[in-house]
Amino acid sequence: MGYVPLLRDSLLALLFEALLLGCLGTLYPISLWMLVYRHRRHRSRYTRTGLWLFAIVTAMLALATTHFALIARATIAAFTRNSTTPDGPMLFWLSGGEDFAYVTGALLSICLTVIGDNFMMYRIFVLWGRRWVSIVLPAFLLLGTIAAGIACAYAYTRTGLPVAEALYTDRVYATMTSFLVLVLVTNVTILALLLGRLSWHARAATRAARLLNADTAMISMHWEVARTILQSEALYSATVVANLVAYVTHSRLLFLTTTALPPLVGISFTLIITHVGFHEIMAQVNAADGEYLSAIRWAVANSNPKSASLPSVRSSAVASSPSVRTRETSGAALESVAGFVLDMCGGTVHER
Question: Which of 24, 66, 190, 219 is the least buried, fewest Cβ under 10 Å from its Cβ?
Fold first, then answer.
């Protein structure tokens, strides 16, 4: 492995992390605006869960920024303080000059993973009717992830070697591989439990809508939420797989995948909030447009003086019909269910 490719990869990894951090910095205010918008729309006070969401998103941005600052500081130090020495940056890296940054960055990555998985477990807990049995398996996997991360850090301190040399020693290799595998299995398990429950809600709402002959437009919200979660978490899971493969195969891509994980945790979390929030806003806009067009059609249809006295009688008869009342009732019920799912997976959770 040459010196130049290794140094080049470290710089590319720093640039890649900077780009991802910029994406997270863009999604952060958008997700916060979504939280504030939904509270103002429902005219409700800020709930405890909503405040927790604000704190979680802010903590993710702060931890990801700290991780980037540590790696950037170490990289700048390697190229500025040792630029006049032959192979100075490489010798600085091999001598353990960047150990503090990489070890601290690894701990920050573990913290981000734990924060994200904890809140995903809370979503599972709520969607599964607040049954504790639903989070038993994810909780054990998360505890195993934390234990593997701590064991990996302890194994590194026992080697007494720089990170560059200790990374592939037998003890560190075993604990590091276990940690990455547990992170992946935990993420896939949480994703399966969330999507499974959302699918169950969608099928139940569809059966109710067909039974009551109601409008099934709100059912699409369940699938929209499921698709959003799948897309957001698939990006993070793919990066974890790439990180595991790069580590096992001793590939230099490990630089890119390792530095990409901290901002991707925040990106996948905020994408769920922003995507579902935008979907809800567009649904409201389409509903408002539909009401506006209906008003125009009514005005055009009743512009004939001869039929001026008919709309009130016709509209009152239609409004009092049992089928319309059934559709309104079932539609309101379906909208309530869809709003519950959106609240749980889109961000703003109201106390119930």
Answer: 66
d(CA 103, CA 163) in angstroms, rounded, equals: 8
Please count the residues of the chain: 352
Distance (Å, whole) CA 154 – CA 148: 10
Between CA 267 and CA 271 the distance in angstroms is 6
Handedness of CA 58, 194, 20, 73 (dihedral sign): positive
d(CA 245, CA 257): 10
Can you tell me the distance from the alpha carbon of 279 to that of 294, in angstroms, rounded to the nearest whole number?
23
Q: What is the pLDDT of residues 256-286, one digit of tens each?
A: 898 999 999 999 889 888 877 777 777 666 6
Q: What is the pTM of this model?
A: 0.77
Tens digit of pLDDT for each residue in 211-223?
766 555 555 556 6
Average pLDDT, the chain: 76
With CA atoms as reference, report the closest residue to 347 among 2, 11, 41: 41
